[in-house]
Amino acid sequence: MTVNKENQDMRVFSLNSNDPLVDEIVKELNIEKGKSTIKRFSDGEIQMNIEESIRGCDVYLVQSTSQPGNEYLMELLIMIDAMKRASARTINCVIPYFGYSRQDRKARSREPITAKLIANLLEKAGADRIITVDLHAPQVQGFFNIPVDQLLAFPILSSYFIEKNLENPVIVAPENGGVIRARKLGDALDCPIALIDRNRSMPGRGHMDIMGEVAGKTAIIIDDMIDTARTIRAASSELLARGAKEVYACCTHPVLSEPAIDRINESDIVEVVTTNSIFLPEEKKTNRLKVLSLAPILAEAITKVQNDESVSTLFE
User: Fold this and answer.
1) End-to-end CA, the chain
2) How confident is the model at residue 1 (pLDDT cuts 50, 70, 90)?
3) pTM of the entire structure?
4) What Å distances lie between residue 182 and 32, 160, 171, 214, 218, CA to CA?
C-alpha cells in the first residue's frame, strides 16, 4: 500500500479514543504517527498541542466518538480547529464509530435530530471530509455538505465466517431494518436468511416471531452494533428453542454498555465476532469475543483519498 510521491505531505494523528487502531493504520501505511499531545486542566478543560509542522499537509484525524462520547467529540472538534489554525491543507476526520447516528430523525414530538447537529459542528469546525464505518442510519451522510465515505465491515466479517466453514448456516436479522445486511452476508456465505420479528407492545420487551427455517442450522445473528446485548441474548435463546444447533453473533461496533459482557457470558452464544472500531478495555473483554481489525480497509481508504482515487470499491 503506497502513497504517490506527489502526495507525501500527509499526517495521521491519533486522539484518545483508539490509539491501538491508529498504530495499526500507520503501520499499514508505512508512515510515522503524527506528534501531538492532549492534556486537561484541573477543571477538565481540554488543551491540544500539535508538535510538528503540518503547514500544507493533508491531515487525517482518527477518533471514534464512543464512550465517553461527548469527551471524544470535543477532542475531535478542538483538534480540527487546531489543524485549521496550523494551516493544514485538508482536514479529514476518520471516525470508525460515529456516535449519535441513532438520533437521525424526530421519532417523537420535540425531539432533536442530534446526528444533524454533530454534522454541523464538524463542518463548522473545519472538517473537509468524513471517513466512517457502518453508520447506524446511512441517511446521516446526507446531513453533511462535505464528502462522506461510509466504509463497510461486511467484507471482513464475511471472510471470517467463510474461513470458519460452519455447517449448514443461516443468517439472522434481529429486526426488520437488518434484512439487507443479513441478505448480503447470506449471499456471501451462499446460505438462507431468517428474520426475528419483535412485537415490542407485549410485556417482557416484546414477543419474538422467527420468519424462516432455523431448525438444525447454525444461526449467525448480524447487526451493526451490540449495545446492551439484550437483543442478541434473547434472540439466541429463541433460535435454540426453535431447533438451531448453535448460535453465533457478529456486529461492526462493540458498544457493549453495562451489562453487555455479563449477558454475552450468560448466553448460549458460541462466539461474538466484531471489529476494533471501538477500543475495548480489559473489563469489556471475554473469550466469547473475537475482534477483527479495521486497519487494512481504513488505511486503504486513506491511501485512495490521498491519491485522488475512487473509494467506492471499498463500500460496494
Assistant:
1) 20
2) low
3) 0.92
4) 38, 15, 6, 14, 14
C-alpha cell at position 257:
454498555
pLDDT on residue 4: 56
If we measure between CA atoms, which residue out of 105, 248, 111, 235 comes closest to residue 166?
248
Q: Which residue has the cell 431468517?
A: 194
Q: Which of 258, 253, 300, 304 is nearest to 274 (CA)?
A: 253
* DSSP state at residue 34: P
Q: Is the dihedral of CA 234, 236, 237, 242 positive or negative?
A: positive
**Chain position carrying cell 475495548:** 280
What's the pLDDT at 94? Answer: 98
Sheet bearing 169-173, strands edge to edge:
207-211, 193-199, 169-173, 218-226, 246-254, 269-275, 289-292
- Average pLDDT value for residue range 174-189: 90
Quick check: 213 and 194 in contact, CB under 8 A?
A: yes
Q: How far apart are CA 168 and CA 22, in angstroms?
A: 37
Report whether pLDDT(203) > 80. no
- Reply yes or no on whether the pLDDT at 6 is more than 50: no
